[in-house]
Specification:
The chain contains 26 helices and 12 strands. By secondary structure, the chain is mainly alpha-helical. Among the domains are: 227 residues, Serine Threonine Protein Phosphatase 5, Tetratricopeptide repeat; 140 residues, no CATH class. The strands form 6 sheets. The protein has a two-stranded antiparallel ribbon. It has a two-stranded antiparallel ribbon with strand order 2-8. Strand 9 and strand 10 form a beta hairpin. It is globular, with a radius of gyration of 25 Å. This is RagB/SusD family nutrient uptake outer membrane protein. InterPro entries: SusD-like_N, SusD_RagB_dom, TPR-like_helical_dom_sf. Keywords: Cell outer membrane, Membrane, Signal.
Length: 685
């Protein structure tokens, strides 16, 4: 073991801290006490510490849901961030990195590159664990199998993190690399996207065999289960089936090659990839472990937890209890509580999470969403496009939807504002007085996610009672609108997803202070799997026989509308909106467009939209559109003009081919002579 310890190119070619190969690779120098590998893995406590260390690199830029400083990929054309409005070099993982730099591809090849180093370091640590945990005599065989499976999951998940960000990446040999070999001898080329996805799939299958079906929802909340492995596998296979990676003959795909000229994206379309992705999603569904999170119907309440607001009557869903209808659930609270820290580790929808993933992650997002009046930074908001994506409460489109970007139906946006007489009459719930009628009668997910001007910020944890229950308008001159600082909403539309009614950021802590309720990161949740299942089925013309993950049965996979409804209906019912019409289900193109909209709404702010737009090949159209929002220069005396959408001058947008995948850093290209750059980016600094 001293002669050949498993080494990953991410460390040899990634850390930039090696004085020499031999100095770094002696195994007795790796562990903090300079123990030998044999001694480490003979000890149960040290083995468990090593496994915990395997997970440690899944934070920061390797997180799925995080604040802008770590994961700007949570922000696309739906949600934006402000605050970092200047470029001060963008060379380190924590350097200033504005939304405009991010959204226009103006970053350098060396920006946000901690993902590469962290992921390959995690892969190396996981592989060392996999290869040596068998030596432990203080663990039972069952514990050894579970621990090894956890490390295998982590290794495959690190590869998945790399694959979705950088595209095809090097897969390292299982047998390890001799540290006596030169850099040139151990240089490794990029594998094709298909090969990477298949490897992740096969590794997740191996992990699933020995992972527990369930875990303690509190002490083991951040450890993977059988379902987590199968869900991650489904995601990798769905991406591999998607247009960017499946039958792509565009110039970009032709230019993305390894060092020998082999194309790394499949140019031959294979419909069966969609069937395999559908079957993988169904594997998760068939476990019988997961369901969407719901909150019971409330007949009374208060301003922070109001009585349930009934959706408009629907003959199919209003009179039926969950899961066949919404009669006995609170659709607003079900969605809000899923993200704001109310739902805990026993949440049946949560498939994989890193737990409470640190101050600069979900809590940091919330600190940037809270308004100035709550000592927040008032930087994270949503775009007019996202506001328009939400349905009315009867499932129809909002008046004036997408009018400014040329996609509207010719209707005009509503004018006028909620009056006290409206409130007294019980109209337009939950809107208070003074709110634009453009925000009236929307679906529950809208009210759980969007901080429209005039919404109530509850801040129930505020020290002083007078600091609680505040109506916040974003008009210029009002204290929470446009200012000459960096802390203001560029579209005049804020974000409430992830915000708990108790949240306040007293003291102005950037990463979220002690009065911000801690949240579990929703890395993979069941709603995503359901939507993935429906999406994959929709793309099929043929019928396929696909074995289940464990070979216990064989699925017949086809474009079966009844099966597609299994993916759509629960998500829609929980949201309090009717199911799609039969016309939508019957038209593959219309269903695809509607499904994309459903993902945009349901998964907003969860790090999915940025990657969805790319795998669908929709990014050139969607990310090049101008970003619209309220006219933030208008004061309250001109409130109708404030609510007349304009091109947000503080936010820029464009898309170029180089933005399909993230660039590989120059330092990695120098260290690995067989590593090729993504098209459009430079290979030399």
């Amino acid at each position: 073991m001293r002669r050949t310890i498993y080494l990953l190119l991410g460390l040899v070619f990634g850390t930039g801290i090696l004085s020499s190969c031999s100095d770094y690779l002696e195994s007795d120098q790796y562990f903090k006490d300079r123990m030998t590998i044999e001694k480490v893995f003979a000890s149960k406590p040290y083995s468990e510490e090593w496994l915990a260390h395997v997970y440690s690199d899944m934070t920061g830029q390797c997180a799925d849901v995080a604040n802008k400083r770590n994961t700007p990929h949570c922000f696309a054309d739906d949600m934006y961030y402000g605050g970092d409005d200047a470029d001060f070099g963008v060379t380190g993982s924590g350097a200033t990195f504005s939304y405009n730099i991010f959204h226009t591809g103006s970053y350098s090849e060396n920006a946000k590159q901690a993902t590469w180093t962290q992921a390959y370091r995690g892969i190396r640590n996981a592989t060392t664990f996999i290869q040596n945990i068998h030596m432990n005599t203080e663990l039972t065989e069952t514990e050894i199998a579970d621990y090894r499976a956890q490390a295998r999951f982590a290794r495959a998940y690190y590869y998945w993190i790399l694959l979705r960000k950088y595209g095809p990446i090097p897969l390292l040999p299982e047998e390890g690399i001799d540290y006596n070999d030169s850099y040139d001898d151990i240089a490794t080329p990029r594998s094709s996207y298909e090969k990477c996805a298949d490897y992740i799939s096969s590794e997740m299958l191996l992990a699933a065999k020995d992972l527990k079906l369930t875990r303690d929802p509190y002490s083991e909340v951040a450890r993977p289960t059988k379902g987590a492995a199968l869900a991650a596998r489904a995601k990798a296979l769905l991406f591999a089936a998607s247009p960017l990676m499946n039958g792509n003959t565009d110039d970009y795909a032709m230019a993305l090659v390894d060092d020998e000229g082999n194309q790394l994206l499949s140019t031959t379309y294979d419909e069966e990839k969609w069937a395999k992705a559908a079957a993988a999603a169904r594997d998760v569904m068939e476990l019988g472990v997961y369901e969407l999170f719901t909150v019971n119907y409330k007949t009374s309440g208060n301003i922070a937890y109001p009585a349930t607001i009934d959706p408009p009557y629907d003959p199919e869903f209003s009179d039926k209890d969950w899961p066949n209808g919404w009669k006995n659930i609170d659709c607003f609270e079900s969605y809000r509580s899923l993200f704001n820290g109310t739902a805990t580790g026993d949440n049946p929808e949560l498939i994989f999470t890193r737990g409470d993933n640190g101050d600069e992650q979900v809590a940091g997002m919330v600190a940037n969403q809270l308004p100035i009046i709550a000592d927040g930074w008032s930087n994270n908001g949503v775009t007019q496009k996202q506001v328009d994506a939400y349905y009315m409460n009867d499932g129809t489109d909002s008046p004036g939807k997408d009018r400014e970007i040329g996609r509207g139906d010719g209707s005009n946006r509503l004018t006028g504002f909620v009056t006290q007489a409206d409130v007294d009459a019980g109209m337009y719930k939950p809107l208070p007085t003074g709110v634009s009628l453009q925000y009236a009668n929307r679906e529950p997910r809208f009210y759980a996610s969007v901080a429209y001007s005039g919404s109530i910020w509850h801040m129930q944890n505020a020290t002083l009672p007078q600091d609680r229950e505040k109506q916040v308008f974003y008009y210029r001159g009002g204290g929470n609108g446009y200012t000459n600082t960096l802390a203001w909403l560029r579209t005049g539309i804020g974000m409430k997803k992830f915000v708990h009614p108790g949240d306040t950021n007293e003291g102005g802590v950037p990463g979220g202070g002690p009065l911000v309720v801690r949240k579990l990161e929703p890395a993979i949740r069941y709603a995503d799997i359901l939507l993935m299942y429906a999406e994959a089925l929709n793309e099929l013309d043929g019928t396929y026989q696909i074995p289940s993950w464990d070979g216990s049965t064989t699925y017949t996979i086809s474009r079966d509308v009844n099966e597609m409804k299994k993916g759509i209906r629960p998500v829609r019912i929980r949201a309090g909106v009717p199911d799609y019409t039969e016309d939508v289900y019957g038209d593959k193109d219309l269903f695809r467009a509607t499904l994309k909209r459903e993902r945009q709404i349901e998964l907003m702010g969860e790090g999915k939209r940025y990657y969805d737009l790319r795998r669908w090949k929709d990014a050139p159209a969607e990310e090049s559109l101008p970003i619209y929002g309220c006219n933030v220069l208008m004061d309250e005396a001109n409130r109708e003009l404030f609510h007349t959408p304009v091109n947000s001058w503080g936010l820029q947008s464009t898309f170029s081919d180089k933005m399909w995948f993230w660039p590989i850093s120059h330092s990695e290209l120098k260290r690995n002579k067989r590593l090729t750059q993504n098209p459009g980016w430079t290979s030399n600094d």
